Amino acid sequence: MSDKHEHGDIKSLPESRLRIAFALTFSFMLVEFIGGYLTGSLALISDAMHMMTDAFALLLALIAIRAGKKAADYLKTYGYVRFEILAAMLNAVILLAVAFYVLYEAYRRISATPDIQSAGMLIVASAGLAVNLIAMQLLKNSKDDSLNVKGAYLEVWADMLGSVGVIIGAVIIWLTGWLIVDSVIAVLIGFMVFPRTWILLKSCINILLQGTPENIRISDITDEINKHDEIVSAHNVHLWALTQSNYVLTAHLIYKKDADHNTIRRLLTDSIHKKFNIDNITFQMEQEKPE
């Protein structure tokens, strides 16, 4: 296997920016956990747990980059790029676990809400918001190139909203003394996890099951093939994704008996690549049988 043969999205991922974002997120995660414990704020602890998943997602993205750079071989002919999908799926499962924990803890606090230091809660949440905004800026330009980076970006984005919620809750508690607001904010932050986690999990499952990419229809592929005058029919058409933006297409084509199959293959490969951005295309060519 050639060590120059690359698959996946790892060439476009900003490893240095991911390292900076991970360092910032992980460091402040610890600050938020300590701050939540000292102030008694469940909302702050909830936000810290969100930040923990952010840090984990960034770490998995870094690991996925390193794994994806390993050369393909005869045992792993596409290399290790799909480690990214496994990492993103694991991250989605962890997000669900965090959400359920926060909901349980909020329920437990209904009957016994502890004292909450709103001033400390406000200071820590404001600093957390600043860290989230910096991390979002670092990831923004590459969020559409990798499912793992996209997952990390979505988590930081949701955590940014969570920090805003904690800040609002701290102000309300400071002005009114309504301690129950802390648990309400924590629950709202927890519920923010579910829709984005489902989107991420759905994408991962579709890729792992070799489903058709969500942005391409098989019928569009077959229509493009059948537009060629020398093609009699196309069948056994399969389209799947190795990663979020690395697609694979195979098809069995029957061409007219007087046609040049090499020319047909070249023309179809070029047109499908340009129209659908598919790099890995394999056509099995078969001449039309005489009647």
TrEMBL record:
It is found in: Membrane. Keywords: Ion transport, Membrane, Transmembrane, Transmembrane helix, Transport, Zinc, Zinc transport. GO terms for cellular component: plasma membrane. GO terms for molecular function: zinc ion transmembrane transporter activity. Residues 19-209 form the Cation efflux protein transmembrane domain. The chain crosses the membrane at residues 20-45, 51-68, 80-104, 116-135, 156-177, 183-201. Residues 213-287 form the Cation efflux protein cytoplasmic domain. It is a multi-pass membrane protein. Belongs to the cation diffusion facilitator (CDF) transporter (TC 2.A.4) family. SLC30A subfamily. This is Cation transporter. The lineage of its organism: Bacteria, Pseudomonadati, Pseudomonadota, Gammaproteobacteria, Enterobacterales.
